[in-house]
Amino acid sequence: MPDFCAAFGCSNERNAKTKEQGITFHRFPKDKVKRRAWTAALRRRNFVPNDRSVVCSCHFNSEDFDRTGQTTRLKEGVTPSIFTFTDHLSKVGVIDNLPLYSA
Ligand SMILES: [Zn+2]
Hints:
Blueprint: H1 16-20, E1 25-27, H2 32-42, E2 54-56, E3 65-66, E4 73-74, H3 94-97
Antiparallel strand pairs: 1-2, 3-4
Bound molecules: zinc ion.
Residues 5, 7, 10, 12, 56, 58-59 line the site of zinc ion.
Protein backbone atom coordinates (compact mmCIF):
# COMPACT_ATOMS: atom_id res chain seq x y z
CA MET A 1 0.00 0.00 0.00
CA PRO A 2 1.44 3.37 -0.99
CA ASP A 3 2.14 6.06 1.55
CA PHE A 4 0.00 9.14 1.08
CA CYS A 5 0.47 12.35 2.96
CA ALA A 6 -2.24 12.67 5.62
CA ALA A 7 -2.45 16.45 5.40
CA PHE A 8 -5.70 18.01 4.32
CA GLY A 9 -5.61 19.07 0.68
CA CYS A 10 -2.28 17.40 0.01
CA SER A 11 -2.07 14.50 -2.40
CA ASN A 12 1.63 13.78 -2.23
CA GLU A 13 2.44 10.10 -2.35
CA ARG A 14 5.71 8.37 -1.72
CA ASN A 15 6.87 7.52 -5.24
CA ALA A 16 9.65 8.17 -7.72
CA LYS A 17 8.32 11.61 -8.61
CA THR A 18 8.16 12.99 -5.08
CA LYS A 19 11.52 11.43 -4.36
CA GLU A 20 12.95 13.33 -7.30
CA GLN A 21 11.41 16.52 -5.92
CA GLY A 22 13.14 15.92 -2.64
CA ILE A 23 9.91 15.42 -0.71
CA THR A 24 10.31 13.16 2.27
CA PHE A 25 7.60 11.40 4.26
CA HIS A 26 7.53 11.25 8.01
CA ARG A 27 5.61 8.93 10.28
CA PHE A 28 3.52 10.25 13.11
CA PRO A 29 5.35 10.25 16.42
CA LYS A 30 4.72 7.29 18.69
CA ASP A 31 4.53 9.58 21.69
CA LYS A 32 0.86 10.22 22.47
CA VAL A 33 1.18 13.92 23.22
CA LYS A 34 3.21 14.59 20.09
CA ARG A 35 0.89 12.51 18.01
CA ARG A 36 -2.05 14.54 19.26
CA ALA A 37 -0.22 17.72 18.36
CA TRP A 38 0.32 16.47 14.82
CA THR A 39 -3.28 15.35 14.52
CA ALA A 40 -4.51 18.72 15.78
CA ALA A 41 -2.24 20.50 13.33
CA LEU A 42 -3.76 18.56 10.44
CA ARG A 43 -7.23 19.74 11.46
CA ARG A 44 -8.92 16.84 9.76
CA ARG A 45 -12.16 15.99 11.43
CA ASN A 46 -12.36 12.40 12.64
CA PHE A 47 -8.87 11.63 11.44
CA VAL A 48 -7.05 9.07 13.56
CA PRO A 49 -3.46 8.41 12.54
CA ASN A 50 -2.16 4.87 12.61
CA ASP A 51 1.41 3.63 12.66
CA ARG A 52 1.64 3.93 8.91
CA SER A 53 0.28 7.46 8.64
CA VAL A 54 2.76 9.91 7.20
CA VAL A 55 2.99 13.63 6.61
CA CYS A 56 5.18 14.91 3.79
CA SER A 57 7.99 17.40 4.14
CA CYS A 58 5.93 20.19 2.51
CA HIS A 59 4.31 20.84 5.88
CA PHE A 60 7.44 21.52 7.86
CA ASN A 61 9.79 24.45 7.99
CA SER A 62 13.22 23.91 6.54
CA GLU A 63 14.77 24.32 9.98
CA ASP A 64 12.61 21.46 11.30
CA PHE A 65 14.77 18.93 9.47
CA ASP A 66 17.96 17.26 10.49
CA ARG A 67 19.84 16.72 7.24
CA THR A 68 23.11 15.71 8.80
CA GLY A 69 22.56 11.99 8.35
CA GLN A 70 22.02 9.88 5.24
CA THR A 71 18.29 10.19 5.55
CA THR A 72 16.36 13.38 6.20
CA ARG A 73 14.89 13.26 9.67
CA LEU A 74 12.71 15.57 11.64
CA LYS A 75 14.17 17.19 14.67
CA GLU A 76 12.82 16.11 18.03
CA GLY A 77 9.54 17.72 19.02
CA VAL A 78 8.61 19.51 15.80
CA THR A 79 5.05 19.53 14.51
CA PRO A 80 3.84 20.12 10.96
CA SER A 81 2.93 23.79 10.57
CA ILE A 82 2.53 24.61 6.89
CA PHE A 83 -0.85 23.83 5.40
CA THR A 84 -3.13 25.09 2.72
CA PHE A 85 -6.59 25.35 4.13
CA THR A 86 -9.63 26.72 2.45
CA ASP A 87 -10.56 30.17 3.72
CA HIS A 88 -13.35 29.32 6.10
CA LEU A 89 -11.17 26.78 7.83
CA SER A 90 -8.08 28.88 8.28
CA LYS A 91 -8.21 30.59 11.60
CA VAL A 92 -4.81 31.63 12.76
CA GLY A 93 -4.24 30.75 16.39
CA VAL A 94 -6.73 27.91 16.64
CA ILE A 95 -4.02 25.30 16.95
CA ASP A 96 -2.45 27.02 19.94
CA ASN A 97 -5.72 26.93 21.85
CA LEU A 98 -6.37 23.23 21.51
CA PRO A 99 -6.15 21.38 24.84
CA LEU A 100 -3.40 19.03 23.73
CA TYR A 101 -2.41 17.98 27.20
CA SER A 102 -5.81 17.20 28.66
CA ALA A 103 -7.25 13.71 29.01
ZN1 LIG B 1 1.75 16.69 2.24
